[in-house]
Amino acid sequence: MGTLLFSDQQGMERALCRGAGRLLLFSLITVLLLSAAIASDLLFRKSPQTQETEERMVLFSPFASALWTSGSQMRHPETTHPAVALRFAPGLECPP
Amino acid sequence: MPGNHHLAMLFWAAREVLRVPGRSVLLFICLSSLVFLMSTPLLFGRALDETWMRLVKGAPDLVIRRIDAGGWAPLPSDESVSLAGTVPGALDPVARLWGVATGPDGPLTVVASAGVLSEDATNGIKPPSAGQAIVGQLIKRSVSGTQLKLVSRHQIEVEVVGSFPPDTHLVTSDVVWIAEEDARQLLGLSPNQASDIAIRLFRKEEETAIQKDLAAAFPWPVRITDRSTSALRHHSLATKAGGVGVLLAVPALLAMLFLITEVIVGSRRRFSFWVLLQSMGWTTGDLVRVELAKAVIVGAPAIVSGLTLAHAFVFSTRLAGITAYLISGRRKLPALTLDATGALLVMIYVTVLVGLPYLAAVFLTSLRATSGDPQRLIGSDSWS
Q1: Considering only alpha carbons, which residue of chain A is nearest residue B137?
Q2: What is the pTM of this model?
Q3: What sign does the CA torsion over A23, B31, B329, B99 have?
Q4: What tens digit of pLDDT does each residue of B303-361 get?
Q5: Torsions phi, psi of B42, nearest 5?
Q6: Which among A27, A58, A59 has the least Cβ separation from residue B301?
Q7: What is the predicted ipTM?
Q8: CB–CB of B175 and A60 under 8 A?
Protein backbone atom coordinates (compact mmCIF):
# COMPACT_ATOMS: atom_id res chain seq x y z
CA MET A 1 0.00 0.00 0.00
CA GLY A 2 2.82 2.29 1.04
CA THR A 3 4.67 1.50 -2.20
CA LEU A 4 1.52 2.15 -4.22
CA LEU A 5 0.99 5.50 -2.50
CA PHE A 6 4.64 6.45 -3.14
CA SER A 7 4.43 5.59 -6.81
CA ASP A 8 1.16 7.53 -7.08
CA GLN A 9 2.81 10.57 -5.55
CA GLN A 10 5.68 10.31 -7.99
CA GLY A 11 3.23 9.95 -10.85
CA MET A 12 1.31 12.96 -9.62
CA GLU A 13 4.46 15.03 -9.35
CA ARG A 14 5.48 13.95 -12.82
CA ALA A 15 2.06 14.86 -14.17
CA LEU A 16 2.25 18.27 -12.51
CA CYS A 17 5.68 18.91 -13.97
CA ARG A 18 4.78 17.69 -17.46
CA GLY A 19 3.16 20.98 -18.47
CA ALA A 20 6.03 22.96 -16.97
CA GLY A 21 8.56 20.81 -18.81
CA ARG A 22 6.73 21.35 -22.08
CA LEU A 23 6.67 25.10 -21.52
CA LEU A 24 10.40 25.16 -20.79
CA LEU A 25 11.11 23.05 -23.86
CA PHE A 26 8.85 25.25 -26.03
CA SER A 27 10.56 28.38 -24.76
CA LEU A 28 14.05 27.00 -25.39
CA ILE A 29 13.23 25.58 -28.85
CA THR A 30 11.51 28.82 -29.92
CA VAL A 31 14.52 30.90 -28.96
CA LEU A 32 17.03 28.53 -30.61
CA LEU A 33 15.05 27.96 -33.81
CA LEU A 34 14.19 31.60 -34.43
CA SER A 35 17.74 32.75 -33.63
CA ALA A 36 19.12 30.14 -36.05
CA ALA A 37 16.64 31.27 -38.74
CA ILE A 38 17.69 34.92 -38.37
CA ALA A 39 21.40 34.03 -38.31
CA SER A 40 21.18 31.83 -41.41
CA ASP A 41 19.21 34.48 -43.31
CA LEU A 42 21.73 37.17 -42.39
CA LEU A 43 24.57 34.96 -43.58
CA PHE A 44 23.19 33.65 -46.87
CA ARG A 45 20.51 36.14 -47.90
CA LYS A 46 21.96 37.70 -51.05
CA SER A 47 24.37 36.49 -53.67
CA PRO A 48 27.22 38.78 -54.77
CA GLN A 49 26.00 38.40 -58.36
CA THR A 50 22.63 39.95 -57.49
CA GLN A 51 24.38 42.82 -55.74
CA GLU A 52 26.55 43.40 -58.79
CA THR A 53 23.51 43.52 -61.07
CA GLU A 54 21.83 46.02 -58.77
CA GLU A 55 24.93 48.18 -58.59
CA ARG A 56 25.06 48.34 -62.38
CA MET A 57 21.38 49.12 -62.63
CA VAL A 58 21.80 52.22 -60.48
CA LEU A 59 23.16 53.94 -63.60
CA PHE A 60 19.56 54.20 -64.78
CA SER A 61 18.62 56.49 -61.90
CA PRO A 62 21.77 57.47 -60.10
CA PHE A 63 20.62 60.07 -57.62
CA ALA A 64 17.42 58.82 -56.02
CA SER A 65 15.62 55.54 -55.50
CA ALA A 66 12.27 54.57 -56.97
CA LEU A 67 10.69 55.10 -53.53
CA TRP A 68 9.98 58.60 -54.82
CA THR A 69 7.65 59.09 -57.76
CA SER A 70 9.05 59.87 -61.21
CA GLY A 71 8.87 63.52 -62.10
CA SER A 72 9.17 64.73 -58.51
CA GLN A 73 12.18 66.72 -57.41
CA MET A 74 13.06 64.07 -54.84
CA ARG A 75 13.31 61.42 -57.58
CA HIS A 76 15.24 63.66 -59.96
CA PRO A 77 17.17 66.21 -57.88
CA GLU A 78 19.08 67.09 -61.05
CA THR A 79 15.95 68.83 -62.32
CA THR A 80 15.58 71.13 -59.33
CA HIS A 81 15.77 74.67 -60.60
CA PRO A 82 17.62 77.23 -58.47
CA ALA A 83 14.82 79.59 -59.46
CA VAL A 84 14.68 83.33 -59.06
CA ALA A 85 14.67 84.66 -55.50
CA LEU A 86 11.25 86.13 -54.92
CA ARG A 87 11.85 86.90 -51.27
CA PHE A 88 10.57 90.04 -49.70
CA ALA A 89 13.49 90.07 -47.27
CA PRO A 90 16.72 90.06 -49.27
CA GLY A 91 19.75 88.84 -47.33
CA LEU A 92 18.13 85.71 -45.94
CA GLU A 93 20.42 83.17 -47.53
CA CYS A 94 18.04 80.29 -48.08
CA PRO A 95 16.42 79.20 -51.33
CA PRO A 96 12.79 80.16 -51.81
CA MET B 1 22.91 19.36 -5.67
CA PRO B 2 22.97 22.95 -6.96
CA GLY B 3 22.15 21.83 -10.52
CA ASN B 4 19.05 19.96 -9.40
CA HIS B 5 18.07 22.89 -7.20
CA HIS B 6 18.19 25.31 -10.14
CA LEU B 7 16.33 22.88 -12.41
CA ALA B 8 13.64 22.41 -9.79
CA MET B 9 13.38 26.18 -9.49
CA LEU B 10 13.00 26.49 -13.25
CA PHE B 11 10.18 23.93 -13.21
CA TRP B 12 8.58 25.78 -10.35
CA ALA B 13 8.77 29.05 -12.28
CA ALA B 14 7.29 27.40 -15.39
CA ARG B 15 4.42 26.05 -13.33
CA GLU B 16 3.79 29.51 -11.94
CA VAL B 17 3.72 30.89 -15.50
CA LEU B 18 1.15 28.25 -16.42
CA ARG B 19 -0.90 29.09 -13.33
CA VAL B 20 -1.76 32.50 -14.85
CA PRO B 21 -1.89 31.67 -18.57
CA GLY B 22 -3.89 34.73 -19.60
CA ARG B 23 -1.45 37.14 -17.99
CA SER B 24 1.54 35.27 -19.42
CA VAL B 25 0.11 35.33 -22.96
CA LEU B 26 -0.66 39.05 -22.64
CA LEU B 27 2.88 39.74 -21.45
CA PHE B 28 4.24 37.71 -24.37
CA ILE B 29 2.13 39.68 -26.87
CA CYS B 30 3.05 43.03 -25.28
CA LEU B 31 6.77 42.29 -25.30
CA SER B 32 6.91 40.86 -28.82
CA SER B 33 4.84 43.68 -30.32
CA LEU B 34 6.97 46.26 -28.53
CA VAL B 35 10.14 44.69 -29.90
CA PHE B 36 8.57 44.45 -33.37
CA LEU B 37 7.43 48.09 -33.37
CA MET B 38 10.80 49.31 -32.16
CA SER B 39 13.06 47.17 -34.34
CA THR B 40 11.17 47.39 -37.66
CA PRO B 41 11.85 51.13 -38.31
CA LEU B 42 15.38 50.82 -36.95
CA LEU B 43 16.16 47.81 -39.15
CA PHE B 44 14.51 49.40 -42.18
CA GLY B 45 16.36 52.69 -41.72
CA ARG B 46 19.70 50.96 -41.35
CA ALA B 47 19.04 48.63 -44.30
CA LEU B 48 17.91 51.45 -46.63
CA ASP B 49 20.93 53.53 -45.68
CA GLU B 50 23.35 50.64 -46.22
CA THR B 51 21.75 49.61 -49.52
CA TRP B 52 21.72 53.09 -51.00
CA MET B 53 25.25 53.91 -49.84
CA ARG B 54 26.43 50.76 -51.60
CA LEU B 55 24.43 51.47 -54.76
CA VAL B 56 25.51 55.07 -55.24
CA LYS B 57 29.16 54.06 -55.19
CA GLY B 58 28.69 53.12 -58.86
CA ALA B 59 26.90 56.35 -59.76
CA PRO B 60 28.62 59.38 -61.33
CA ASP B 61 30.00 61.93 -58.88
CA LEU B 62 28.45 65.01 -60.48
CA VAL B 63 25.70 65.74 -62.97
CA ILE B 64 25.71 69.03 -64.90
CA ARG B 65 22.45 70.32 -66.26
CA ARG B 66 21.80 73.42 -68.34
CA ILE B 67 19.11 75.74 -67.04
CA ASP B 68 17.31 78.81 -68.26
CA ALA B 69 14.61 81.02 -66.80
CA GLY B 70 11.89 78.53 -67.68
CA GLY B 71 13.52 75.40 -66.26
CA TRP B 72 16.07 72.96 -67.62
CA ALA B 73 17.21 73.14 -71.20
CA PRO B 74 18.88 70.52 -73.42
CA LEU B 75 22.60 71.03 -73.91
CA PRO B 76 24.79 70.42 -76.97
CA SER B 77 26.35 67.08 -76.13
CA ASP B 78 29.69 67.19 -77.98
CA GLU B 79 30.49 70.75 -76.94
CA SER B 80 29.47 70.09 -73.32
CA VAL B 81 31.58 66.94 -73.08
CA SER B 82 34.63 68.77 -74.39
CA LEU B 83 34.02 71.76 -72.05
CA ALA B 84 33.67 69.49 -69.01
CA GLY B 85 36.85 67.68 -70.02
CA THR B 86 38.85 70.93 -69.83
CA VAL B 87 38.38 71.20 -66.06
CA PRO B 88 41.25 69.50 -64.19
CA GLY B 89 39.99 66.67 -61.99
CA ALA B 90 36.82 65.99 -64.00
CA LEU B 91 37.05 62.57 -65.65
CA ASP B 92 35.01 60.63 -68.23
CA PRO B 93 32.30 63.18 -69.08
CA VAL B 94 29.34 61.35 -70.64
CA ALA B 95 26.26 62.88 -72.23
CA ARG B 96 23.08 61.35 -70.81
CA LEU B 97 19.73 61.15 -72.53
CA TRP B 98 16.76 60.77 -70.24
CA GLY B 99 13.54 62.46 -69.19
CA VAL B 100 10.14 62.05 -67.63
CA ALA B 101 7.16 60.87 -69.63
CA THR B 102 3.58 59.97 -68.87
CA GLY B 103 2.82 56.27 -68.98
CA PRO B 104 -0.35 54.25 -68.44
CA ASP B 105 -0.17 54.69 -64.64
CA GLY B 106 1.32 58.17 -64.31
CA PRO B 107 4.82 59.60 -64.68
CA LEU B 108 7.79 57.35 -65.35
CA THR B 109 11.48 57.79 -66.06
CA VAL B 110 12.65 57.23 -69.62
CA VAL B 111 16.35 56.52 -70.20
CA ALA B 112 18.35 55.98 -73.36
CA SER B 113 22.02 56.60 -72.88
CA ALA B 114 24.21 54.35 -74.93
CA GLY B 115 27.30 56.05 -73.53
CA VAL B 116 26.43 55.49 -69.90
CA LEU B 117 24.80 52.11 -70.27
CA SER B 118 27.43 49.94 -71.86
CA GLU B 119 26.80 46.25 -72.44
CA ASP B 120 28.90 45.48 -69.39
CA ALA B 121 26.79 47.80 -67.23
CA THR B 122 23.52 46.20 -68.21
CA ASN B 123 24.81 42.77 -67.24
CA GLY B 124 23.81 40.87 -70.34
CA ILE B 125 20.45 42.55 -70.99
CA LYS B 126 20.27 43.28 -74.69
CA PRO B 127 19.66 46.99 -75.33
CA PRO B 128 16.29 47.72 -76.96
CA SER B 129 16.14 48.44 -80.68
CA ALA B 130 13.99 51.17 -82.20
CA GLY B 131 10.35 50.64 -81.26
CA GLN B 132 11.22 48.37 -78.33
CA ALA B 133 11.33 48.96 -74.56
CA ILE B 134 12.64 47.26 -71.45
CA VAL B 135 10.60 48.22 -68.41
CA GLY B 136 10.66 48.09 -64.62
CA GLN B 137 8.37 45.77 -62.69
CA LEU B 138 5.83 48.48 -61.74
CA ILE B 139 5.35 49.41 -65.39
CA LYS B 140 5.24 45.78 -66.47
CA ARG B 141 2.25 45.27 -64.19
CA SER B 142 0.39 48.31 -65.50
CA VAL B 143 0.84 47.49 -69.19
CA SER B 144 -1.93 45.44 -70.76
CA GLY B 145 -0.50 43.47 -73.66
CA THR B 146 2.90 44.44 -74.99
CA GLN B 147 2.28 47.96 -76.32
CA LEU B 148 3.33 50.88 -74.13
CA LYS B 149 2.22 54.40 -74.96
CA LEU B 150 4.51 57.20 -73.74
CA VAL B 151 3.70 60.89 -73.81
CA SER B 152 6.12 63.76 -73.27
CA ARG B 153 6.93 66.47 -75.84
CA HIS B 154 5.61 64.00 -78.44
CA GLN B 155 3.80 60.69 -78.17
CA ILE B 156 5.33 57.35 -79.12
CA GLU B 157 4.26 53.75 -78.82
CA VAL B 158 6.82 51.02 -78.11
CA GLU B 159 6.69 47.27 -77.69
CA VAL B 160 7.71 45.86 -74.29
CA VAL B 161 10.30 43.16 -75.00
CA GLY B 162 11.74 42.61 -71.55
CA SER B 163 11.96 43.74 -67.96
CA PHE B 164 14.70 44.60 -65.50
CA PRO B 165 15.86 41.93 -63.02
CA PRO B 166 13.37 41.47 -60.17
CA ASP B 167 16.00 42.24 -57.51
CA THR B 168 16.47 45.80 -58.75
CA HIS B 169 13.10 47.28 -57.74
CA LEU B 170 14.67 50.04 -55.68
CA VAL B 171 16.38 51.41 -58.78
CA THR B 172 14.38 50.36 -61.83
CA SER B 173 10.73 50.01 -60.77
CA ASP B 174 9.51 52.98 -62.80
CA VAL B 175 12.22 53.10 -65.45
CA VAL B 176 11.67 52.53 -69.17
CA TRP B 177 14.73 51.89 -71.31
CA ILE B 178 14.17 52.73 -74.96
CA ALA B 179 16.33 53.25 -78.04
CA GLU B 180 18.10 56.57 -78.49
CA GLU B 181 16.09 57.63 -81.55
CA ASP B 182 12.79 56.89 -79.77
CA ALA B 183 13.91 58.90 -76.75
CA ARG B 184 14.89 61.87 -78.91
CA GLN B 185 11.50 61.79 -80.62
CA LEU B 186 9.66 61.44 -77.30
CA LEU B 187 11.58 64.18 -75.48
CA GLY B 188 11.87 66.48 -78.49
CA LEU B 189 15.68 66.49 -78.62
CA SER B 190 17.72 66.88 -81.79
CA PRO B 191 20.55 64.39 -82.57
CA ASN B 192 23.29 66.54 -81.01
CA GLN B 193 21.43 67.34 -77.81
CA ALA B 194 21.62 65.64 -74.42
CA SER B 195 19.71 65.95 -71.17
CA ASP B 196 22.78 66.39 -68.96
CA ILE B 197 26.44 65.50 -68.51
CA ALA B 198 27.61 62.96 -65.93
CA ILE B 199 31.21 63.12 -64.76
CA ARG B 200 33.50 61.27 -62.37
CA LEU B 201 36.08 62.98 -60.23
CA PHE B 202 39.76 62.17 -59.87
CA ARG B 203 39.49 63.09 -56.17
CA LYS B 204 36.11 62.55 -54.49
CA GLU B 205 37.03 65.16 -51.87
CA GLU B 206 36.83 67.87 -54.55
CA GLU B 207 33.13 67.28 -55.05
CA THR B 208 32.13 70.70 -53.69
CA ALA B 209 35.21 72.69 -54.66
CA ILE B 210 35.22 71.68 -58.33
CA GLN B 211 31.63 72.78 -58.90
CA LYS B 212 32.62 76.46 -59.25
CA ASP B 213 35.26 75.60 -61.87
CA LEU B 214 32.82 73.46 -63.80
CA ALA B 215 30.10 76.11 -63.74
CA ALA B 216 32.62 78.70 -64.99
CA ALA B 217 33.70 76.42 -67.84
CA PHE B 218 30.26 76.51 -69.49
CA PRO B 219 29.07 79.57 -71.40
CA TRP B 220 25.47 79.14 -70.15
CA PRO B 221 24.02 78.80 -66.63
CA VAL B 222 24.20 75.27 -65.25
CA ARG B 223 23.05 73.47 -62.14
CA ILE B 224 25.39 70.84 -60.70
CA THR B 225 24.10 68.01 -58.53
CA ASP B 226 26.46 65.90 -56.45
CA ARG B 227 26.27 62.33 -55.24
CA SER B 228 26.74 63.14 -51.55
CA THR B 229 23.50 65.14 -51.48
CA SER B 230 21.66 62.08 -52.78
CA ALA B 231 23.25 59.84 -50.17
CA LEU B 232 22.40 62.41 -47.49
CA ARG B 233 18.76 62.52 -48.61
CA HIS B 234 18.41 58.76 -48.21
CA HIS B 235 20.32 58.84 -44.95
CA SER B 236 17.93 61.50 -43.60
CA LEU B 237 14.92 59.41 -44.59
CA ALA B 238 16.44 56.34 -42.94
CA THR B 239 17.42 58.19 -39.75
CA LYS B 240 14.00 59.75 -39.51
CA ALA B 241 12.31 56.35 -39.83
CA GLY B 242 14.50 54.84 -37.11
CA GLY B 243 14.15 57.85 -34.81
CA VAL B 244 10.36 57.92 -35.06
CA GLY B 245 10.25 54.19 -34.28
CA VAL B 246 12.30 54.61 -31.10
CA LEU B 247 10.40 57.73 -30.05
CA LEU B 248 7.10 55.89 -30.35
CA ALA B 249 8.37 52.78 -28.61
CA VAL B 250 9.96 54.42 -25.55
CA PRO B 251 6.63 55.54 -23.95
CA ALA B 252 5.23 52.07 -24.69
CA LEU B 253 8.24 50.49 -22.98
CA LEU B 254 7.82 52.74 -19.93
CA ALA B 255 4.11 51.89 -19.74
CA MET B 256 4.90 48.19 -19.90
CA LEU B 257 7.53 48.46 -17.16
CA PHE B 258 5.04 50.34 -14.99
CA LEU B 259 2.46 47.57 -15.49
CA ILE B 260 5.01 44.87 -14.64
CA THR B 261 5.96 46.70 -11.46
CA GLU B 262 2.34 47.13 -10.50
CA VAL B 263 1.56 43.45 -11.14
CA ILE B 264 4.47 42.30 -8.96
CA VAL B 265 4.12 44.77 -6.08
CA GLY B 266 0.46 45.61 -6.23
CA SER B 267 -0.96 42.11 -5.74
CA ARG B 268 -1.77 41.18 -2.11
CA ARG B 269 -2.26 37.56 -3.10
CA ARG B 270 1.36 37.40 -4.20
CA PHE B 271 2.48 38.72 -0.79
CA SER B 272 0.53 35.95 0.94
CA PHE B 273 2.09 33.39 -1.37
CA TRP B 274 5.60 34.69 -0.71
CA VAL B 275 4.97 34.62 3.07
CA LEU B 276 3.88 31.00 2.74
CA LEU B 277 7.02 30.09 0.80
CA GLN B 278 9.27 31.97 3.22
CA SER B 279 7.69 30.17 6.15
CA MET B 280 8.58 26.91 4.39
CA GLY B 281 12.24 27.92 4.21
CA TRP B 282 12.52 29.81 0.92
CA THR B 283 15.00 32.64 1.03
CA THR B 284 14.62 36.07 -0.55
CA GLY B 285 17.18 34.98 -3.14
CA ASP B 286 15.03 31.97 -4.10
CA LEU B 287 11.96 34.13 -4.55
CA VAL B 288 13.80 36.67 -6.68
CA ARG B 289 15.35 33.89 -8.79
CA VAL B 290 11.91 32.37 -9.42
CA GLU B 291 10.53 35.76 -10.50
CA LEU B 292 13.50 36.28 -12.82
CA ALA B 293 13.11 32.77 -14.25
CA LYS B 294 9.43 33.48 -14.92
CA ALA B 295 10.39 36.70 -16.68
CA VAL B 296 12.95 34.91 -18.85
CA ILE B 297 10.62 31.98 -19.71
CA VAL B 298 8.06 34.42 -21.15
CA GLY B 299 10.39 37.24 -22.19
CA ALA B 300 13.09 35.44 -24.16
CA PRO B 301 10.78 33.81 -26.75
CA ALA B 302 8.72 37.01 -26.92
CA ILE B 303 11.75 39.18 -27.74
CA VAL B 304 13.12 36.70 -30.28
CA SER B 305 9.65 36.37 -31.90
CA GLY B 306 9.38 40.16 -32.21
CA LEU B 307 12.84 40.36 -33.76
CA THR B 308 12.06 37.55 -36.22
CA LEU B 309 8.84 39.23 -37.29
CA ALA B 310 10.65 42.55 -37.78
CA HIS B 311 13.41 40.81 -39.71
CA ALA B 312 10.83 39.21 -42.01
CA PHE B 313 9.04 42.52 -42.59
CA VAL B 314 12.28 44.28 -43.55
CA PHE B 315 14.31 41.63 -45.36
CA SER B 316 11.65 39.49 -47.03
CA THR B 317 11.47 40.98 -50.53
CA ARG B 318 7.65 40.99 -50.77
CA LEU B 319 6.96 42.31 -47.27
CA ALA B 320 9.76 44.90 -47.50
CA GLY B 321 7.86 46.77 -50.21
CA ILE B 322 4.89 47.16 -47.85
CA THR B 323 7.12 48.12 -44.91
CA ALA B 324 8.90 50.75 -47.00
CA TYR B 325 5.55 52.21 -48.03
CA LEU B 326 4.24 52.30 -44.43
CA ILE B 327 7.41 53.72 -42.90
CA SER B 328 8.58 56.15 -45.56
CA GLY B 329 5.11 57.12 -46.81
CA ARG B 330 6.50 57.00 -50.35
CA ARG B 331 5.61 54.75 -53.25
CA LYS B 332 4.59 51.13 -52.70
CA LEU B 333 7.09 48.93 -54.53
CA PRO B 334 6.14 45.35 -55.43
CA ALA B 335 9.30 44.06 -53.76
CA LEU B 336 12.45 45.39 -52.20
CA THR B 337 15.81 43.74 -51.59
CA LEU B 338 17.74 45.43 -48.81
CA ASP B 339 21.22 44.90 -47.41
CA ALA B 340 21.38 43.18 -44.04
CA THR B 341 24.73 44.70 -43.06
CA GLY B 342 24.56 45.87 -39.49
CA ALA B 343 21.18 44.24 -38.83
CA LEU B 344 22.64 42.07 -36.09
CA LEU B 345 23.85 45.16 -34.22
CA VAL B 346 20.38 46.71 -34.41
CA MET B 347 18.85 43.51 -33.06
CA ILE B 348 21.30 43.37 -30.17
CA TYR B 349 20.58 47.04 -29.47
CA VAL B 350 16.80 46.45 -29.35
CA THR B 351 17.22 43.32 -27.22
CA VAL B 352 19.28 45.27 -24.69
CA LEU B 353 16.97 48.31 -24.86
CA VAL B 354 13.88 46.23 -24.06
CA GLY B 355 15.27 43.21 -22.25
CA LEU B 356 17.47 44.99 -19.73
CA PRO B 357 14.81 47.36 -18.27
CA TYR B 358 12.33 44.48 -18.31
CA LEU B 359 14.61 42.21 -16.25
CA ALA B 360 15.71 45.11 -14.06
CA ALA B 361 12.08 45.99 -13.30
CA VAL B 362 11.29 42.39 -12.35
CA PHE B 363 14.47 42.03 -10.28
CA LEU B 364 14.23 45.29 -8.37
CA THR B 365 10.51 45.14 -7.64
CA SER B 366 10.58 41.51 -6.53
CA LEU B 367 13.68 42.16 -4.40
CA ARG B 368 12.07 45.17 -2.78
CA ALA B 369 8.86 43.30 -2.14
CA THR B 370 10.40 40.15 -0.69
CA SER B 371 13.34 41.49 1.29
CA GLY B 372 11.26 43.36 3.85
CA ASP B 373 10.29 42.29 7.31
CA PRO B 374 8.24 39.04 7.11
CA GLN B 375 5.89 40.48 9.72
CA ARG B 376 5.05 43.27 7.28
CA LEU B 377 4.40 40.72 4.57
CA ILE B 378 2.11 38.77 6.91
CA GLY B 379 0.37 41.99 7.94
CA SER B 380 -0.24 42.90 4.31
CA ASP B 381 -2.25 39.70 3.82
CA SER B 382 -5.93 40.55 3.45
CA TRP B 383 -6.92 37.64 5.78
CA SER B 384 -4.89 38.85 8.76
Answers
A1: A66
A2: 0.81
A3: negative
A4: 999 999 999 999 988 898 888 888 877 778 888 888 888 899 999 999 999 999 999 98
A5: -65, -45
A6: A27
A7: 0.76
A8: yes
